[in-house]
Design a protein that fits this description.
heterodimer; A: 280 residues; alpha/beta; Rossmann fold; 2 domains; 6 strands; 12% strand; elongated; B: 215 residues; 8 helices; 0% strand
Amino acid sequence: MKFLEKLLAVDRRIIFLFIAIAVALPLFFVVKLHIEVTPVVRNLHNALEALPPGSKVLVSLDYDPGSMPELQPMAESFFRYCFNRDLKVIIMGLWPNGPIQANVALEVVLKEPEIMKKNLKYGIDYVNLGYTAGNEVVIERMGSDIPVTFPKDYSGNKTEDLPLMKGVMNFNNIDFVYNLSAGYPGTVEWVLFAVDPYKVKLGAGNTAVQAPQIYPYLNSGQLVGLLGGMKGGAEFEIATGYPAKAVRYMFSQSVAHAVICLFILLGNFAYFATRKKKGS
Amino acid sequence: MRREIPLAITAIVGFALIIVYFIPHPPFNASKDFFEDLFFIIAAFAIWLGCLNLLKVNADKVYLKKKGWPFSIVVWFGFFLMVIVGFWEGRGFMNPGTTFYYLYDKLYYPLNATMFSILAFFVASASYRAFRARNKEATILLIAALFVMLGRVPFGYYLSSWLPEGWRLGNITDWIMDFPQTAAQRAIMIGIALGIVSSSLRVLLGLERTFASGE
């Protein structure tokens, strides 16, 4: 009985230790897990597959390094997919750190042998427009005039001088928008200010915490598809045929979830056992 | 006048933006770009204001030797280090290969990610203490949480792969996310939207004045 009472009042540092082991240890092993592609991810992949090569895809990275473990693999797999399919990528951010996160992802993807073979050129195959302050008003203004919203790119070049941006005036000249979001401003604002007024095709990747808030937009058809948390990222990697970081990290996340579930079950067992004893 | 002028500006701009949004045709749409430009300017100044406020708060902490004041020196150091390096490198200062990018990638990036990852430990500890089947509602929440936690990772598939399709943990998780969860989210969203509409109207009509006068 004393053991159960001790279990109920277990020091949180012991829980921390178990979680640390559960998260860190599996990272040293490569375990092939069965990952099913759910309909929300399949829909996003199908919408991207329908784009012909040369289509212009706007990618808005609205997060900072705090959400990097979940969203960075999504950014890398999305860029990899776009470059492999010869889609033209226009990068921007509603968060100040978004465009630099894009550079971190590009640095990884552009070094991959298959992508290097394509000899991609900045300004022709991809551009990084950077960050503009103004949250959802930036989206609103892009609906009428993208070059005015981003007069210069991330490196200080005039947007109108970039070959890829020739003829890109507003959302009418964008074939697909993909948003990686960790909060405000993010996917909700893209739905409200781009999808509804300008009928933009939007897909999104969100942190697991935020994904449930986005589900109503999926069911209403305002959002084409959604990658929810690292699992969503892993599903996208499986769907595109390039298993990478998210797939590899799923083992760690699986073990961590299992340990938390075990703790919850143990806690409840101890709670009921001690309550019965006290009652009798 | 100190109270009336801000209230009048708020009401005029607020109603003008509503008209522009719902009637996007001449002559109403002409003012849209003007108001958006104003917003961009204010947003840009707000960043400056935020930076200055950060420096002031931390300077006060150091001056008054408040608890944890040495950390404020680190804030000042980090702030000026990034600003000076950024200005020094000029155009393209955030591109790979620059010192700014190096500091971001090797210092800020792991530090920020570490801060957020600490959350996992607190979530685990809080789940252990909070998820108790004390009553009917808590039990439903607990069961849903267990299904979603296991159904959202591949372990859920292995635990339930022997069950018929549709009864597996992944399918149950999808059902929870698609129906009960979405229904609850919709109710919350509609509630919040109605609340925003009513409080916005109160601000525009001058009934809510706390933002202007501190009343």
